[in-house]
């Protein structure tokens, strides 16, 4: 199988299990989830599905394969990471006041904040329920991993929010946030399949390290898109939306800590109200001038290389290793416009 | 032991375990939780603790005793219900825009909505983690119960929010909301101890029924306080706060469904903006006139009687049965002012 085929296979395995798991939600919660997933419109009418890329479920399946099992041994794990990912989307959109995702209005804009938060939390609970009810003898270890992951994600999200009110955080703090808020979920995806099929600790740990590195690379790439991405690349979001939101992303943290230009950026961020387009442009130039862009791009490349090196330590069939390499390469920021 | 002694013993057992469990939260989340619990002020300085009444932990301990075990066999269960209860408080306060709880500003007012939601969700996760790590052989069954409880609470909260925008719900819908939003947690508290000490199914089910009835009674009493309670009884909240918030509580649902006076109340609720004091007073009179107050009071009494009857079916030592009876009696609305 090539990579698109693997992503397709992941969707084929996950979709019916997901529909089945979601059927236990109350009608009021289901309505919000179905809208968020892109399956129904705001009035509950079915719409053409714009599926997610299914990168995380695919990683959970490959993880099972790397652990000596089969794809179907990791269905509960793939579901769990997909639910955790969508929990994070639903909650983050409320907290970041993001009004668009995947070219549509976000759930909180359509249904209200409370409904979006409850729907998201219901997915968090569902992620844990599908693991507890899995038939793997290792389901409790997988559940422990998922719970630890959600706790890390919450810690990261909370730290992220503190950045919005102070512009004195260090690059190390921004990295801690990145590690816990987003990389921990990728780490969970790349190791939970192996856990479920009963792989040994060394394999699980190596896969976890792989996921942690890939997660940082993906986030570094996203951080670049949040400043230099075109609406085409970012689901219709305005250019420089992370600057507008004064997020504590890695390139911004690097720039704020620059000895000569950090204060200029801090002054821009410290202003009341929304930043004008020319100010966003100015901030983006400042970040490039401090080396924030270069630093982040180089971090992404290093992380992909480190992930690739980690996975090479496992004795895997060539095609399985290739798939991990290809998925890791999706974290490379080659396509971010200048 | 008498009831105050049992509540005191519950606190003694729960407090150190709680401190231990909370120590794994990140400093940013911990700050919000410590404030919410009444242990620290907004700047992180320790304050004299205004402890909770510990009714739910006490019920978890009594549940273990009724299941043939000892109090200490249910520590993880008592912790879990206390965490779930505080998760619900933190989230509800955001969604209901409640600015005061236990005579202090609520966490979202002090730290912002996002921080309060993340701190609450961290407690939800912690509730499940302490159960997974318990040393009871029945911990997975207890975890299943806790997850099912949180799913029900979310369904109830979501249903509750839909009531805020429409005033055509039935008494049955309001009862469904009450059952899932609040009674399910009491049901969890009264059965989780027995589950953890390995009691038989009949005992667990009877204790669950007891808790469900007591939960409805407690909520019915709270619904009365939300209309007729004095600030002294409601932690400093203004009289008629449930009317101001146009909540879908039981007495309000009864009144809205009254053939002759329902439309008058609907007209009041349908107004833009805040209700004036005289309008709150008028709504409260309307609710009494429709029999909404009487109906709710009688429901609470019936539920306490039903709970008492349920617990009598179990072969319990007299003092244990007495403690259940006394805790159930706390749901009687005798003290709600006229």
What is the compact description of this entry?
2 copies of one chain form a homodimer. Chain A is mainly α and 338 residues long. Chain A contains 15 helices and 2 strands.
Structure commentary:
Chain A has one domain: Farnesyl Diphosphate Synthase (Orthogonal Bundle), CATH 1.10.600. Chain A has 338 residues and is mainly α. Helix content of chain A is 69%, strand content 1%. In chain A, strands 1-2 form a two-stranded antiparallel sheet. Chain A has 15 helices and two strands. At the A-B interface, helix 2, helix 4, helix 6 and helix 7 of A face helix 2, helix 4, helix 6 and helix 7 of B.
Keywords:
homodimer; mainly alpha; Farnesyl Diphosphate Synthase; 15 helices
CATH fold-level label of chain A: Farnesyl Diphosphate Synthase
Low-confidence stretches of chain A: none
Oligomer: homodimer
Instruction: Round the Cα radius of gyration of chain A to an integer and report it.
Output: 20 Å
